[in-house]
Amino acid sequence: MSTFPGGTSLSHLGVYDTAAGDGVCGGSPHMHLVSTEAYVVISGRGALQTIDRDGFHETPLEAGAVVWFTPGTIHRAVNRGDLKVVVLMSNAGLPEAGDAVMTFPAEVVADAAAYASAASLGDDDADRADRAAQRRNLAVTGFETLRDAVLDGDTAPLEAFYDASAALVRERAVDWAELVRQGPLAQAQRSIAMAEAVAARRPEHLAEARTFEATPSAGERRFGMCGRLRTYDVTSAEKADQNEVTGKETDQ
Q: Which whole number is the average pLDDT over 4-14?
């Protein structure tokens, strides 16, 4: 099998260099409910601002830095000069299935229709940059409320955000466990089987060795929550491998 290491996903991120309402350049603060995220900084400088039950923190980012954060960590990427990052996400496919909630004000997060409207970039490509800036600014407003509360020692707004976020995604979360089973769990089980095979001196899987190359997304970088993204299809190689076995042609 050619699953990308750890059942993770990979993208290249250029963090937004425009200023939000508070004058800080960067992305839309948000959190993931199940997936862990990692930044590998490849150029520029900036910071990762985070909120969790321990309070508010700011971690400097510069070329060579590696930072990761677990589910429930509200994070905001801050660009202080051409910040570019390789992003690794656990549970490939799960973030795309809705494993993220932006820190819009509490009344927006509590209303599914209002949240969907605020998060949408619309259908008109010409408006996407403006819409991305608008939702970023709204998320920063909610982020400031949560930050100020935890700095005062009050975690109640953070706990309320956690509860509202879980309620917001509960319907689509029904499918998340299966995505994990088919991705990282299946890969871990294959690794266990291979380790046991080597210990038993039956390493037949070594005959299946292959090299794969990820395919970057075509066209302009899309507007993500933290910046402009170039994603990589780390599943296409596996599909091609399967098609080679079955004799099917790969869709282009």
A: 92
Which stretches within the chain are classed as H helix?
106-109, 112-119, 128-151, 156-169, 176-180, 186-199, 236-246
Q: Which residues pair with 74 in a beta bridge?
A: 51
Cα–Cα distance, 118 to 136 (Å, whole number): 10
Q: Are strands 55-62 and 227-233 parallel, antiparallel or unpaired?
A: unpaired
Distance between CA atoms of 95 and 101, rounded to whole angstroms? 10
pLDDT tens per residue, range 144-184: 999 999 999 999 999 999 999 999 999 999 999 999 999 99
- If 0-12 CB within 10 Å is exposed, 13-18 middle and 19+ buried, where does residue 162 land? middle
User: Distance between CA 232 and CA 215 in Å, rounded?
Assistant: 5
Nearest to 37 by CA among 69, 72, 85, 8: 69
Q: Which residues contact 211 (CB under 8 A, 6 or more apart)?
A: none
> What's the rounded Cα separation, in Å, for the pair 147 and 154?
10
Interatomic CA distance for residues 43 and 106, integer angstroms: 35
* pTM tops 0.85, yes or no: yes
| 182-203 residue pLDDT tens | 999 999 999 999 999 999 999 9
